[in-house]
Specification:
heterodimer, A: mainly alpha, Cytochrome C Oxidase, Chain A, two-stranded antiparallel ribbon, B: alpha+beta, Cytochrome Bc1 Complex, Chain D, domain 2, 3 domains, 5-stranded mixed sheet, 3-stranded mixed sheet, 7 helices, 40% helix
């Protein structure tokens, strides 16, 4: 127990608390000297909370050691170039590690934790929606300074943002763990920056959760002003949490791009990279260049609240619609940040389980880049009803529909990949197939939202909620589970229980279809997004009840997964060899992976997915003799 | 070649079945609910073609996948690999170019449908709409009527000029299909031609705060004669209501007070007005106060001055009202017993 409290995680959290008090105390002191009020509903005043939260993040990072090496360098002290592990067993995951595999697992486990929290919030408000009228989130209840409907709005908004952050961390987890192994690199290009990118996400998640207890913020995850300009102080914690998490995303993406450009093995030309690497690069380009815009848009509202700058306040000449443009310039491409790695996992795993080459490798690689590019040109399709210039909506309809083309290329290529293969259905493959079908549902329900006139009906209804959950489950959640089942043996030397894996799949998939089809159905009928209660006259109480049950079944299936995940680390069936009979380099060496990855470097001598071509190889390990000659 | 023929037939069968299934659910030829506006016709027309395309594309992907999963599954004990083919450039070009063409056709249809929903009738009636947390107010400038129910004559285009006094709201009548945000600091326009007599509701579709779910007001599409009768009745009522209480009631409608304060004792975002005047009010700090004229006047102008137990005063925006208007509202509140 003592060991646990002295880990970098706990030290960071302790220093975050201290930092918060120092920052808030500083502002409170200055206000006292200036004769301004020093307390408010939630003890500190809003400026005090904001500076406190900001200091909290800085103190966390300074206190937990993730910036120590940089400070040493600045003072002229040298540190070992190669990282050495100071900890073993569970301890290394709670301390600052520079090993990309450890960081990948830190990211992944943090993502699972946040998914559980976001899912719990969803189940709370899903329960409230099971029936019309207010059941337990009533006007009489009071929690964290909020009554029932206000708390509903906060939980619903936090569900959105917590899930988004968890997806970003999950994506970073898979990329961090897998990409250097696929490239044959010893680590990421910048190991310290990598650790920093992970650790800054932790105080960010704390800030997001702090918003819940500081009065909440009933604005939705979109945080549109003027509503967010009037929300309780919790909204500032939300803004700052997202702003901080954005750094994780930007710096992590930078690292991925540098790693892929600089650290590929000998012979790994662009068109011989594993396909997942293409997806990782495409997603990183978006994350590195667009995340700034959501940070900026939220920062402007923070300044509007703190300093009276009327960016979005019409009374001061500001424009509320401007916020929406800035916000969606990130937040639309963001969904491609979520799904491109997932689609990459599908493309990476299909050939292994179909025992056939990936059909149209170049086209799939280019379609990822195409989606990333077009994704930057479609943001205003979230604003067809916003009051923006009505003729400008038309080009955005065209650009949005164009997304269908690269996405279609992926679908057709996947179908052609499994055609005449020898398919087997271990748990990862089940999730891959599930991902394709669910993502197809999400993809096909997209064009009605892209055509402006139809969207005038669908916008801000549960139809959109259903469509969105289809794209994210198909593009991220299913592939994420597939990836975890698939690479779990690589990380642990054991495999997860197949039976539990199949129960997880067969429980989650039908429930999910019921849930999202139900959402789309009530959406068409008139169920608006983000409402705590609905008119019983609309007649969809029954559908909501069924959706709530389906939601609980999904929750149950994820709990089975989490049990399976943690139980298999120690007790899973041993799997130290090439479990899936893959051609990929990481499976050519025994599991779990050694600390510094490959003992011998490898050279790419063939195509990555030449299954069914006798005698072909993707990689060949360079024997030490050749290595010494090479030197 | 046999595989392709079977899959081709199955795709067509599955596409037809998918379409029939969606039709059975009532969402193929039109969206839900009933079509009550001229604009909904061209919107549902486009929706229908999209459902046709969705049925086909869904089958085009799912059928060959399911077929492969069954026919090409690995038999027990078989450790060999599948057939080795890496791709086909012609095929890739085909499934890039055909969708591109399809998408352009769809975008053209989308532009056409949008044009239909925005078609302007020069004889349209103008009605002013004011949105506030958490209710809608409708003003008929021609007749000097203010109402919290929107009455519209059937088969007549109306244009709503919409303004918000606080945050962004969105005007949506599901039966009309069209939705338009109401943005503070500007006037947005909503053009609609009702074609079906009936009682509907406008439901705020943009999250606007704690009682967003309840921001619903009646929308009544009347026959021409019923509409005229309603106008006459409203005008007469406005004339008859020149007492302080009557003027006060009109003010509470116009300013949206009744979006949060009930007049029948039911619990809403703010304290009810029923039986309020003269009663003893419990405050958040544990003290009590008698709801006399001074208290009511102070609370209308500054709700934070005396925080009522169980309610959040930050929700209520400040109002600028003349002393006479406040006196009228208080007179009205006193009638609620």
């Amino acid at each position: 127990m003592k060991k646990f409290f002295s880990t970098a995680l706990m030290r960071g959290l302790f220093w975050q608390l201290i930092g918060t008090l120092v920052g808030a105390g500083l502002v409170t002191g200055i206000r006292a000297i200036m004769g301004l009020s020093t307390t408010d509903t939630f003890f500190f005043t809003e400026p005090a909370w904001v500076l406190g939260a900001f200091f909290g993040v800085l103190f966390f990072l300074a206190g937990n050691g993730s910036v120590t090496d940089w400070f040493k360098w600045a003072r002229g002290i040298e540190t070992p170039e190669h990282h050495e592990e100071h900890y073993s067993g569970w301890e290394k995951y709670f301390n600052v590690s520079l090993d990309h595999k450890v960081i990948g697992i830190q990211y992944t486990v943090t993502a699972l934790l946040l998914i559980s929290i976001g899912g719990l919030f969803a189940l709370i408000f899903r329960t409230e929606l099971a029936e019309s009228g207010l059941q337990f989130l009533t006007l009489d209840m009071k929690l964290f300074g909020q009554n029932g409907p206000q708390l509903y709005n906060t939980l619903m908004s936090l569900h959105g943002m917590i899930m988004i952050v968890s997806i970003l961390l999950g994506v970073a987890g898979i990329i961090n763990y897998v990409v250097p192994l696929l490239l044959g690199a010893q680590d990421m290009a910048f190991p310290r920056l990598n650790a920093f990118s992970y650790w800054i996400a932790v105080p960010a998640a704390v800030l997001l959760l702090m918003s819940l207890v500081l009065g909440g913020f009933g604005t939705g995850w979109t945080g549109y002003p003027p509503l967010s300009a009037r929300a309780p102080v919790g909204v500032q914690m939300f803004f700052l949490g997202v702003w901080t998490a954005g750094w994780s995303s930007i710096l992590g993406a930078l690292n991925v791009i540098a790693t892929v450009i600089r650290m590929r093995s000998k012979g790994m030309t662009a068109m011989r990279m594993p396909i997942f690497v293409w997806a990782a690069v495409a997603t990183s380009i978006i994350a590195m260049t667009a995340t700034q815009l959501i940070g900026l848009s939220f920062q402007l509202v923070m300044f509007q609240r703190l300093l009276g700058m009327g960016f979005f306040d019409p009374a001061k000449g500001g424009n509320p619609v401007l916020f929406q443009h800035l916000f969606w310039f990130y937040s639309h491409p963001a969904v491609y940040v979520f799904v491109l790695p997932g689609l990459g996992v599908i493309s990476e795993l299909l050939p292994v389980f179909a025992r056939k080459p990936l059909f149209g490798y170049r086209w799939i690689a280019m379609s990822s880049m195409g989606i990333a590019l077009v994704g930057f040109l479609v943001w205003a399709h979230h604003m067809f009803t916003s009051g923006m210039n009505e003729y400008l909506r038309v080009p955005f309809m065209y650009s949005t529909l164009l997304v269908a083309i690269p996405t279609g290329v992926k679908f057709f290529s996947w179908v052609a990949t499994i055609w005449k293969g020898k398919l087997s259905f271990e748990t990862p493959m089940l999730f891959v197939v599930g991902a394709i079908v669910v993502f197809l549902m999400g993809g096909l329900t997209g064009p009605p939202n892209a055509t402006i006139s139809v969207d005038l009906h669908l916008h801000d209804t549960y139809f959109i909620v259903g469509h969105f959950h289809d794209t994210i489950f198909g593009g991220f959640v299913f592939p994420f589970f597939a990836a975890l089942y698939y690479w779990f043996p690589k990380a642990t030397g054991r495999r997860m229980n197949e039976t539990l894996g199949k129960i997880h799949f067969w429980l989650m998939t039908p429930s999910f279809f019921v849930l999202t089809l139900g959402m789309m159905d009530v959406g068409l009928l008139g169920m608006r997004r983000r409402i705590v209660d609905y008119d019983p006259a609309l007649g969809f109480d029954n559908v909501h009840l069924v959706m709530t049950i389906a939601g609980y079944l999904i929750g149950l299936s994820v709990m089975i997964f989490i049990y399976n995940f943690f139980n298999s680390i120690k007790k899973g069936e041993k799997a130290e060899g090439n479990v899936w009979n893959s051609r990929s380099p990481e499976w050519q060496v025994p599991s779990p992976m050694p600390t510094h990855n490959y003992d011998q470097p490898f050279e790419v001598v063939g195509e990555p997915y030449d299954y069914g071509l006798p005698g072909s190889k993707y990689v060949e390990f360079i024997v030490p003799a050749a290595k010494s000659k090479h030197k | 070649m046999g595989h392709f023929v079977i899959v081709g037939i199955l795709v067509i069968v599955m596409a037809i079945l998918t379409y029939m299934g969606l039709d059975l659910a009532g969402v193929a030829t039109q969206m839900h609910p009933v079509e009550a506006s001229l604009q909904s016709l061209s919107i549902d027309w486009l929706w229908h073609w999209q459902i046709v395309a969705i049925s086909f594309l869904f089958s085009l992907i799912v059928v060959p996948m399911a077929y492969s999963m069954i026919v090409f599954r690995r038999r027990k004990g078989d450790t060999s690999d599948g057939e080795h083919f890496e791709g086909n450039t012609t095929l890739e070009i085909v499934w890039t170019v055909i969708p591109l063409f399809a998408v352009l056709v769809l975008a053209y249809m989308g532009s056409y449908s949008l044009g239909e929903t925005r078609r302007v009738d020069p004889n349209a009636i103008t009605i002013k709409v004011k949105a506030q947390q958490f209710s809608w107010t409708f003003e008929y400038p021609e007749y000097g009527i203010v109402s919290n129910e929107l009455h519209l004559p059937v088969d007549q285009q109306v244009v709503l000029k919409m303004e918000s006094s606080d945050v962004i709201h969105s005007f949506w009548v599901p039966e009309f299909r069209v939705k338009q945000d109401v943005v503070p600091g500007r006037v947005t326009e909503y053009r609609i031609t009702p074609i079906l007599v009936g009682n509907y509701k406008v439901r705020c579709a943009e999250l606007c705060g704690a009682s967003h779910a309840y921001m619903e007001n009646g929308v009544i599409v009347d026959t021409k004669s019923d509409y005229d009768a309603w106008i006459t009745e409203q005008q007469a009522a406005a004339l008859a209501n020149q007492t302080p209480e009557g003027k006060g009631q009109a003010l509470t409608v116009k300013n949206g007070c009744i979006g949060c304060h009930s007049v029948d004792g039911s619990k809403m975002t703010g304290p009810t007005w029923f039986g309020l005047a003269g009663s003893t009010v419990e405050l958040a700090d544990g003290t009590t106060v008698v709801a006399d004229d001074a208290y009511l006047s102070e609370s209308i102008l500054n709700s934070k001055a005396k925080e009522v137990a169980g309610f959040s005063p930050t929700v209520m925006p400040p109002y600028s009202l003349t002393p006479e208007e406040i006196a009228n509202i208080i007179a009205y509140i006193k009638t609620l017993k």
